[in-house]
Design brief:
- The complex is a heterodimer.
- In chain A, 75% of the residues lie in helices and 1% in strands.
- Chain A has 17 helices and two strands.
- In chain A, strands 1-2 form a two-stranded antiparallel ribbon.
- In chain A, helix 2 packs across helix 5 and helix 5 runs antiparallel to helix 7.
- In chain B, 73% of the residues lie in helices and 0% in strands.
- In chain B, helix 8 packs antiparallel against helix 10 and helix 10 runs antiparallel to helix 11.
- Chain B is globular.
- The two termini of chain B are 25 Å apart.
- Classes of the chains: A mainly alpha, B mainly alpha.
- At the A-B interface, helix 5, helix 7 and helix 8 of A face helix 4, helix 5 and helix 6 of B.
Chain lengths: 323, 264
């Protein structure tokens, strides 16, 4: 089953959000308008708006209020992708040339900042200081997470706590914030809001762990990049952390990272084989499953609504994701 | 909060401690806190009825936005031959700018100040639109170019001034910040450093064909602007006494390159 099928009952509302997202980035400047639209028109799962809408179903669901939050979160995510492509020197995203490759880094910076500003302007229509506090904190954490990622690159002396904090900041908190802000915008009870926040956090952790596993197990075609790219770029993910329990593996990695600039896919091939066969993939998936169990547990605190089944379905889909 | 040398230095320290990040500090230069903008903002806030906490937070958050915008202007273009260090500096410059933007939002959200969040976000939006225009549009005239540059330099402060309903020094701020920017660009260029303004003028010639012509035009423009600025400053109301003397000193320091001795 496709992910979009799971939340198909939100189709109409999601279409309205899509329109609102497009409207929000209609700059008078033609280059800015084209650049801003470039990434949004290339598609994307719009998973953050989905979480906002589903969370809103547990309170007083008002589409205008939901829209303010959903549009802003999607735009913040988009702005961060535009800047991420400058950081990663990416040429393609969602099969389309990135803004930095179609224009240049400067245009990408202006575009990302413009989208960010539009996002905040849009959310300022929601007169709820707590929503702003949560989103603002999330944004700061997101940046810190990305800085951590650069700091931790090619560093083998790191532990599970480093990794978990990094993926929390990188992925989980924005999903958690989407769920929480949806609940806040719908004036849901505090208990509901926190249960949804926990759900989002746990699902986000699971999602990122699976993403990190897929980097070793999925095909180049599915990934759109060669397998093991994370490791090649010095990112130590969960399967690598488990593999490093083997001292020989760790030493090999240390030796390899000494010549990090000349590292090629062929160089890391022996390590990839070990990761794929030493049980670290299975152990990583177990950790992901544990997070998913916690996500289900968080849902158990919520009333039995269709949205609850949908959130369960999304968690299940994420847990089974293998490509 | 009354603007004074001591007060400005204290504000500078508070802003510096906000943007301090140990890992960033290791690899990218500490952000420059534009003291002139700080003085203008602080002087604007002096004459509002806002609480001292709010005045200070408005100055700090506006400066954080300015620092974020300035930091993103430092992101270099990609070159195939870029070395690892260059790439890492670029990556961290992108993230630092995002981080400083996040901080402005975070601080104002803690004050529950949604209207100010909107004011600053609106200014960021407009400034990026202007920057894009300037970057992509052929320069039709030097005047038009300067008008855009002036807006880019002063729009943030002017939007804040309008928000707190203290617009008396808006014109002066525009003149001063443009003149200052041109002086900085001229100095950079003369020192053999990269000057985005002069580069843009030389690259997109229009009626300006050589760097010598550009420099000559720049010099003439500067003279005109300084004269206009001095006239605007002298018209400021008496309660801007400290600001007036600050700007007079700054004009002499930066433009005439000979510091004047303070009276008394």
């Amino acid at each position: 089953m496709k992910l979009a099928m799971i939340y198909s009952f939100l189709k109409q509302d999601l279409a309205k959000i899509e329109d609102a997202v497009n409207e929000t980035i209609q700059s008078e400047n033609p280059v800015l308008r084209e650049a801003s639209g470039q990434l949004l028109h290339a598609g994307g799962k719009r998973i953050r708006p989905v979480f906002v809408l589903l969370a809103g179903k547990f309170g007083d669901y008002n589409l205008e209020r939901m829209k303010a939050v959903a549009v802003s979160l999607e735009l913040i995510h988009t702005a961060s992708l535009v800047h991420d492509d400058v950081i990663d020197e990416a040429e393609l995203r969602r099969g389309q040339p990135t803004i930095k490759s179609k224009w240049d880094n400067r245009i990408a910076m202006y575009t990302g900042d413009y989208i960010f500003a539009r996002s905040l302007e849009n959310l300022s229509t929601l007169d709820n200081p707590r929503a702003h506090q949560i989103l603002a904190k999330t944004m700061v954490e997101l940046c810190l997470g990305e800085i951590d990622q650069i700091q931790d690159k090619y560093t083998v002396e790191q532990n599970f706590r480093n990794y978990l904090r990094r993926i929390k900041r990188k992925t989980a908190i924005l999903i958690a914030a989407s769920c929480r802000l949806g609940a806040i915008a719908a004036n849901a009870t505090k208990e509901t809001e926190l249960a949804l926040y926990r759900y989002g956090y746990f699902v986000g952790m699971s999602y990122q762990i699976i993403d990190d596993v897929l980097d070793f197990t999925a095909s180049e075609k599915d990934l759109g990049k060669p397998a093991g790219s994370d490791l090649l770029h010095g990112n130590i993910t969960l399967p690598v952390l488990f593999s490093m329990e083997d001292k020989e593996f760790k030493q090999q990695l240390v030796d390899m990272f000494k010549s990090e600039e000349e590292l090629t896919s062929a160089d890391i091939e022996p390590l990839l084989e070990k990761i794929q066969s030493n049980g670290s993939i299975e152990r990583s998936l177990e950790v992901s499953d544990q997070y998913l169990s916690k996500a289900y547990q968080s849902l158990s605190e919520l009333p039995n609504l269709r949205a609850k089944q949908t959130l369960k379905g999304i968690a299940k889909y994420i847990g089974k994701r293998r490509a | 909060m009354n603007t004074s040398e001591m007060n400005i230095q204290q504000l500078k320290q508070k802003i510096a401690s906000q943007v301090r990040h140990p890992f960033l500090a290791k690899f990218i230069p500490e952000p420059i806190i534009d003291e002139d903008k700080l003085v203008i903002l602080s002087s604007i806030m002096d004459h509002t009825t806002l609480s001292p906490v709010k005045r200070e937070q408005y100055v700090i958050t506006t400066m954080l936005v300015q620092i974020a915008l300035d930091t993103h202007d430092l992101v270099t273009l990609t070159d195939e031959d870029d070395e690892k260090e260059t790439i890492r500096t670029r990556q961290l410059t992108v993230l630092a700018g995002d981080y400083y933007s996040g901080l402005y939002y975070y601080l104002l959200s803690k004050l529950d100040d949604i209207p100010m969040i909107r004011t600053l976000a609106g200014a960021i939006k407009e400034i990026n639109e202007l920057k894009m225009e300037l970057y992509y549009k052929d320069v039709d005239s030097f005047q038009e170019f300067l008008a855009s540059l002036k807006k880019i330099e002063s729009l943030l402060i002017q939007r804040v001034a309008t928000y707190v309903q203290k617009t008396t020094i808006n014109d002066m701020a525009g003149e001063w910040l443009l003149a200052k920017r041109l002086i900085d660009e001229k100095t950079s260029y003369q020192e053999g450093k990269f000057s985005p303004v002069i580069d843009l003028l030389v690259r997109k010639p229009g009626s300006l064909e050589t760097s010598t012509q550009v420099m000559l035009s720049l010099e003439q423009m500067l003279q005109k602007h300084i004269t206009r600025l001095e006239a605007t400053v002298s018209q400021l109301p008496i309660h801007f006494k400290w600001l007036k003397s600050y700007i007079h000193m700054a004009i002499h320091d930066k433009f005439y390159e000979k510091p004047i001795v303070e009276e008394g």
